[in-house]
Amino acid sequence: MDVYKHAKPSNKKDSGLVVVFRDYSEFKKKDKIIKYLSFHDQLTGLYNRRFFQEELVRLDRERNFPIALIMADVNGLKLANDAFGYRAGDSLLQKISGILSHECRGDDIIARIGGDEFAVILPKTTPAQASGFVARINEAIAYEKPDKVIISLAIGFAVKQDSSDNMEDIFRKAEDDMYRQRIIDSTSVKARTIVLILNALYEKNVWEMNHSKRVGVLCEEIASELHFSKEDANQMRTAGMLHDIGKIRIDEDILKKAEDLNDDEWHEILQHPEIGFRILNSVNGFSEIAGFVLQHQERWDGTGYPKLLKGEDISIQARIIAIAAAYDAMVSERPYGKAFSEDKAVEEIKKYAGSQFDPIIAKAFVEKVLKKPW
CA-to-CA distance for 293 and 86, rounded, in angstroms? Predict the structure, then answer.
């Protein structure tokens, strides 16, 4: 608090002193917040990349050798964000930051240096000690039982033994070690996450589980009748089972709503092919199926979504899914409508062949799979 004294011009009749008080506590508080944010990651509370880089230079002294540099990348963060929303992804990052903080010593520097990347500087740490640190992190992660997402870190490290080692080279070595581990871990983690996503979807909506399984069987049967190879027919079964995986982001009340959906609710429903595409496209081995899932709500006449594709611009696999999914939805009890008889559903398939459905696939489905007359 500063005090300013200002004497009024003196005269014989009126003289006095004005004292002005200024309270700087609020300014100091704001300045403290600004300084904190300039060196810290707002989400996790860890140091940020700027501070990490400055500390890397400051600590690069002989008294701190050997210095271990740990690099860690979160496996499947984008997939978690796509499937469960950014709150789930943020929660995952906060959980990991807590684990790292718990396992580190007071003088270690922990930073979040990117969207899904963390780095740790460990002064006076040998390669054996750094390896032990990585093992403790992995052990701590293994004990975590998250509700929605799988916690997994690809961790690499390198150690600067003395002044002859260049810190930039050490950084690259640690990063390369992390990338190698990510290649090993990533596919497994993402595949497990796909299973977790399906389970989460099925837990909130049993109808979706049964529908997906039946659609998978129908897709395989149609593909076989269209002379797909055994491998490609098996792929169609998987595609059918995964075609609605994007509904994981749709509110359960909307999926179960018996009344007509309002505009906002329809907008949510219309997003599910694109959400499903993003989820599957991030996983090795599912990228081709992701394309089929993206297109499964397109229509033969070009009035479907999300891209208004028409006719053979739609993949044959997506055209198969469209017929299988529509038929199963019609003959199944749904929250928003009673089941059709098989004959009634066949009539609907015939009615919309050439507009909603590929007419050739529709005919093959009715005659060869359902064994009904066209």
Answer: 22
Contact 286, 194 (CB under 8 A): yes
Which of 189, 214, 236 represents a domain boundary (last residue)? 189
- Domain end, chosen from 169, 189, 209, is at 189
Residue type, 359: P
Q: Under DSSP, is residue 314 helix (H, G, I), strand (E, B) or coil?
A: coil
Where do we find the tokens 């069987």? 217
Calpha distance 8→5 (Å, rounded): 10
CA–CA gap between residue 292 and residue 295 (Å, rounded): 5
Secondary structure tally for the chain: helices H, strands E:
15, 6
Whether the bond between 66 and the residue before it is cis, its omega within 30 degrees of 0, is yes
On whether both 172 and 211 belong to a single domain, the answer is no
pLDDT per residue over 311-320, tens digit each?
999 999 999 9
Average pLDDT along the chain: 91
* Distances, alpha carbon 263 to alpha carbons 260, 267, 311, 329, in Å: 10, 6, 28, 22
pLDDT digits (tens, 9 = 90+) for 40-94: 999 999 999 999 999 999 999 999 999 999 999 999 999 999 999 999 999 999 9
| Residue 46 domain boundaries | 39-189
pLDDT of residue 3 exceeding 60, the answer is no
Distance (Å, whole) CA 44 – CA 112: 8
Q: Angle CA(325)–CA(321)–CA(273) in degrees, nearest 5?
A: 85
- Residues 88-133: pLDDT tens digits? 999 999 999 999 999 999 999 999 999 999 999 999 999 999 999 9
- What is 105-122 written as a DSSP string? -TT-EEEE-SSSEEEEEE
What predicted TM-score, i.e. pTM, was given to this entire model? Answer: 0.84
Q: How far apart are CA 4 and CA 19, in angstroms?
A: 6
| C-alpha to C-alpha distance for 316 and 360, rounded to whole angstroms | 11
Same structural domain, 173 and 257: no
Q: What is the pLDDT of residue 210?
A: 95
Count of domains for the chain? 2
| Contact between residue 211 and residue 353 where contact means Cβ atoms under 8 Å apart | no
331 close to 339: Cβ distance less than 8 angstroms:
yes
Q: Are residues 183 and 222 in the same domain?
A: no
Same-domain status, 268 and 314: yes
